[in-house]
Structures are given as C-alpha cells and as structure tokens.
Fold each of these.
Amino acid sequence: MARRWWKIGHLAPGQHVHERGSTLRHEPGWQTKMAINGFGAVCTAVVALVFATTKFRDGAWVVLILRPAVVAAFSLIHRHYRNLARHLSLEDYGAPPSVSRHRVILPIGGVHRGTLLALRYAMLLSDDVTAVHVSTDPAEAERVQAKWELWGEGVRLVILDSPYRLLLEPLLGYIEAVAAQRQPNETITIIVPQFVPRRWWNNLLHTQAATMLRLALLFKPGIVITDVPYQVE
C-alpha cells in the first residue's frame, strides 16, 4: 500500500492510471497515508524477521521458502501463457505466407497394405513423394525394392544402408539433410504408416516410429509428422 500511495502522490490532479484490478487517482493527504502504511510495512517486516529466525526449524521454512517458490512457479506459468497468447495473436499479423513447395517423405519398413494406404494418402498431399527404406539386410532390401517396383505407383524409393542395424538414426539423418536444403515457405511432411491392432496392448509389440520422429523433429521448423493408421482386423 505504501508503494501504491507513492504512485498516487506522483499523479497530477484529475489524472487516472489504470492498473490490473484498480484505477489510481490523485488524492490529497497521500503523504500521511503513505507514512502510516509504510510504518505498518516496517513493523510487519520486523515481526517476519524475528519469526523466521526463531521458528525456522519449526515450520517457518514453509513460509520463507516453499510459498515463494510456489508463487514464483505460478508467476512463470502465467508469463508463459501470456507470451504464448502474444505470439499466437493475429493482430498486425497480415496474410500468412503461401506454401511454395510441399515435399512428402514416406518411411517404410516393408511393402504391405498399411504401406499402400499411407502411400495413397501421401500422393493426395503432394506430387513430390519419396519413400525411404532403412536397410539392415541387403537381401531384405532387394525384396522391398522388387515389391515397390510392383506396388509403388512410380514413386521413387531411397534405400539407406544401416550396417550397424540402426533404424531411426539413418532416417533422421536423411530428413535433416533434406530439411537443410529446404526452400523458403517449403513444408516437409513425414507420413508414417501405423498399425492399429484390435487389442490395445498389442501396440507394445510394435515400434512407435511416429512418436519417436515427433520427439526428434519437434523443434525443426517446416516439418510436419503425420501417422496414417491401418486398422488390423
């Protein structure tokens, strides 16, 4: 309150200042009111200091440490939402930039019904579609390439060799190499085929490629991760 009266004392007669939850107006006799509230604030500070010194181990630490920490956490959360709202605001935003190019990357582990469903969806989004297969077995890569020539509808297939039997790392390396050459206002969409078993616990038996890609590429601008579910009857 002492600080509030200090602000009021520096206002000209008739001047109004709007603050959160109140409006400040010049009032005569503000000096006396500020002095009274200031004296009360000093007495409160002295009592709090004595209480903190003598009762710290008996629970005063909750008031001195825990409560300010909670208030600070709430303040940071409020600041986060306020900044987020400011960045999402459409005021002075103008027209959004147009997409100059849309490139689609389709990671495949094999050629099957789920792959073909994802391929059809990818071809609806863009004419620039590239299928990517991470090869840990040359014989299996040959079978995938042979099936893709039959079922791939002319979409190009890139085979990435992985001699150390890694699956995610070579794929991420390829995506990051493509993203490094991304043109302004270009969007890259990663289409991931996803199996949806009838029983929910069967999902634990399958690799969650879409989830891992999202976590790895979450902060990459211009990249969208989309999974295409295939319900297994």
Amino acid sequence: MVNSISDNVKAVRDIIAEAAVRSGREPKDIKLVAAAKTHCAEFIKEAISAGVDAVGENRVQEMLQKHEQGAYKGAPLHFIGHLQSNKVNKLVGVCDLIESVDSVDLLKRIGNRAVSLDITQDVLIEINIGEEPQKAGIIPNQLPQLLESAGQIKGVNVLGFMAIPPIIDENDKNCYYFNKMFQLFVDIRAKKYDNVSVRFLSMGMSDSYYDAILCGANVVRVGSAIFNKRNY
C-alpha cells in the first residue's frame, strides 16, 4: 500500500520532532525541504499543502518547467543539485536559495546576475566533507578562502552550508561525517566574514535525516519518504 503524500509528510514531521527534541531543539527549528526531482507539479502542490517548508529541485530545466506550472506556489524554492555555470542566469531570482555553490567562480556569476536584477541571492556553500573526488563541493580546508572571497562579491548572501556525506551502511559512521560538518558549521559561525551569515546546515536525506538532525542539521532534504519511490 502506498501512503498519501500528506500522510508521509506527517510521518516525516513526527520523526523530525523526535530527533529535534533529542538534540535539544524544537521541531520548528528544523526546515523540511521536499526533494522533488522527477515528481510532477500536482504532487509538489500536495506536499506544500501538507506543510513542507520548502521544495528542492536538482535539475534546472525540470525546475523551470514546473515553475511555469505554478508547482511551487506557497513555498520557497531551493536548488539542491549540481550547478553548472552556464545555468546560473536561469536560477538567480527564481530560486529563493541555491544550496549547491562550490566555487568562487559560481559565486561571482551568481552575484553578477543578482546585481543585474537588483536583488541579493541567498546561497549555501556545498562542502565535500568526505573529500570524495567524484563529488561536487569544496573540501573543508578551502572554505575559509572561499568565504573571504564572498565578502568581496556583491549580490550574494551566504547563509550556511550543505553536504552530501559518503554513503555508509553503519549509522555511527554516517554520524561521523555529520558531526564533522556540524563542527565546521560551529567553527565558521564563530568567525566574521562579510556577506556571510551562517544560519543553515543542510544535510540528511530520506535514509539519514534523523541522524543528521541528531548531529546538528537544521535543514533536511527528503524525497522518497514524502513522495514514495520515484517513477523513472
């Protein structure tokens, strides 16, 4: 039996609430992003009606098509996929938050486009916390230099970090990388950079968001646990 999207959102909210309390926070402190890749506009509207905090998309063209269909009305839109530099102009001003910025070049392109639109674009910096060569994101020791550069770029506002840690079966090892991300989050938040206000730590997906919250995440990106299995 396949549960309804509204039932799924309620179940996810209950799990978020338990993890939030266990981590010393309130459920309202955790933002639930519905990861909507391949899911239709009607399903997204159901998820928004059920109370998700935002919708995340991985593919620019798919996002633009669903945006034209009014899929995201009533909720902020996040871009959570790998961002190619030639797609920047299509995202800035459409997405409320771009979660996957991983270079100074991307920051500059986003800033230039935002300035041309007379807006400021909110972004997160994607961290390759496992330092995996096949993955996007900057490695942790490159982060301070990138944030220093961000202070010189008009039109962008860095609000925190996003990560997709290595997939490991044992929960304790997943928590190892989540804890590393949280420590980085805490360390950077204690410093001062222009155009940087470290508020959000986005990590954890359908199979790991409970552990991610226990380790300090305040944004989780949940797909199949809300929309059921994707139909490719």
